[in-house]
Amino acid sequence: MQPTQQHSSTIRVQRTIKTSNDEQTSSDCQDIDVRVFHTTPATVSVTYPMKMTAGYQSIGIEVSVSIPCYKEEVPQALDEAGSLAVAHMKKELPNVEGVLKQLIRESNKIGSRS
After folding, report:
1. What is the pLDDT of residue 81?
2. pLDDT tens readout for residues 71-89
3. CA-closest candidate to residue 45, choices 11, 84, 10, 12
4. Is residue 2 part of a domain?
5. For the chain, what is the domain count?
6. At CA 82, angle to CA 81 and CA 85, rounded to 5?
7. I need a labelling partner for 54 at 20 to 30 A (CA). Which of 22, 71, 105, 106 fits?
8. Is residue 1 included in any domain, yes or no?
9. Mean pLDDT score of the chain
10. Which domain, by its residues, includes 37?
């Protein structure tokens, strides 16, 4: 079997992260290379949900990564999707913990006023 030639194309993506009250918190734009498939690709997906609870406050984050690939590449694509999801979860964990601590402080302030 001959190795498959990979072709790519470049697209520009913009990402905006918003808080629950729709205030814009950050935005960025970048050019990325994307793989062009010559047949309908398979898609592998990995999802890591996480929920933290303290007292009556809780916060959650879910990281999902989907990667298109040829069926022969599914095992490698699953490994890659899992690695990307775990890396992003580790990066976001301090932010999630910070928000949970802030919720607890605000809840304590409200509780002490009652």
Report:
1. 95
2. 999 999 999 999 999 999 9
3. 84
4. no
5. 1
6. 85
7. 22
8. no
9. 82
10. 7-113
